Amino acid sequence: MLLTVARKRLLQSYLYFNCAPLSTVSANSMIPKNAAQVPDLNKIAQCVKIYTLKKRLRLLESFPNRTLARALIDKSFPTHISNTNSLLWPIGRVLRDLYTLEYIKTKYPRLPEEGVAVLKDGLAGTAVLNQLAAMFGLETIGKDENLVDGMGKIIYSRVPAESFRQGRESYKSEAVARTILSILAGVYIHEGNAAARLFVQNFMLSRYLPPDTLMLFQKPKQQLRALCRRLGVSKPVYYLEAETGRKSREPVFVVGVYADGERIGQGQASSLKLSQSQAAHNAVLSYYIYSPSYKTLPSETLDKDGIAYEPPILLPPGQIVI
C-alpha cells in the first residue's frame, strides 16, 4: 500500500494534534466525578520496574520515564486525562496499522482483503499485544492491591467477575493491548518514525505466520476459472498425472491443472474429484501468496533521511468476486 502525499500529511497532522496535549493538557480537562487518587507520575517514573521495562524494550536512555509511566495507566482508570494513556494509544493504533499493513501489502501484493485482515490480526492483534506484554514482564495491578504497591504495573478499572462492562470499566486484554500501543506512540514521539517502525518490525512482524495456513477457499475450481478469465489465460484443464492402488482400499491420484500449456497447480487425494479440487486450491493459493522482492517500505519516506521509495513490481489486485 503506497503512501500518497495526502496520506502523509494526514498522518503528520493527526500525530501533531494528538501529541501536542501530552505536555500542555489543560487543567480544565474533564475529570470523572468518581476520580481516584493515583500515585504521582514522577514517583512511578522513578520505580525500579520502569527502568527494567525500559531496558527490555531497548529504548534510548533519553526516553522519558514519565511517558512510560503514563502508558501504564489505562484510559479506563478514573483519574485526570493527563495521567492516563488516553492521548497515546490512538496514535499507537494508527502507527501499528500503518507499519503492519504496508508490510503485508508490499510483501503479498496479490493477497485479498480478507486475507490481509486475518494476517494483520495474526501479526499485531490484541492477542499478540498481550503476548508481547507477557514477554516484557508487564503485570496488571491486583484486585485488592493498593496503588502504591502497584507502581510499575498496568493500572486499569477492571470489569467485575460475572458481570457486564459498565462505564469506564475495561477488560484486562484490552487494557494490556492499549499499554503496548501507548508505548509505541511514545517511541514515535521521542525517537522518531524509524525507531517506531523498527519497534513494530522487531516485536510484531518478526513472527513467522505463513498466509497459506490462514486461507480457505470454499469453491477452488470456480475461483480458479474466474482467476484465469480475469488474467486473460485459457480455461484450466485437469490431467491425471499419476495414480496408484485404484482398486485398493487406499488409492492415490495425482492431478495437475494446466492453463496456456503450463502447469499452474498440482493436487493429491484419494479420489479424482478431490485431487482436482486440491490442484485448483494450490493454483489459486500460489497466485495469492506470491511475494516479490522489495528494497524499501513506503513509510521510510517519512524518515529524516528522506530516501526515495522504490516500489516492487505491482500486480493487479487479487480480489475475486464470484
What are its keywords?
single chain, 322 residues, mainly alpha, Ribonuclease iii, N-terminal Endonuclease Domain, Chain A, Double Stranded RNA Binding Domain, 3-stranded antiparallel β-sheet, 3 strands, 44% helix, 7% strand, ribonucleoprotein, dsRBD_dom, RNA-binding
The gist of it:
The protein is mainly alpha-helical. It has twelve helices and three strands. A hairpin with a 2-residue loop joins strand 2 and strand 3.
| Overall pLDDT score | 81
Q: Using the CA coordinates, give the radius of gyration.
A: 25 Å
Unreliable stretches: 13-36
Helix coverage percent: 40-55%
CATH-defined topology of the largest domain = Ribonuclease iii, N-terminal Endonuclease Domain, Chain A
CATH architectural type of the largest domain: Orthogonal Bundle
β-sheet strand percentage:
5-15%
Name of the level-1 CATH class of the largest domain: Mainly Alpha
Q: Helix and strand string, N-terminal first? A: HHHHHHHHHHHEEEH
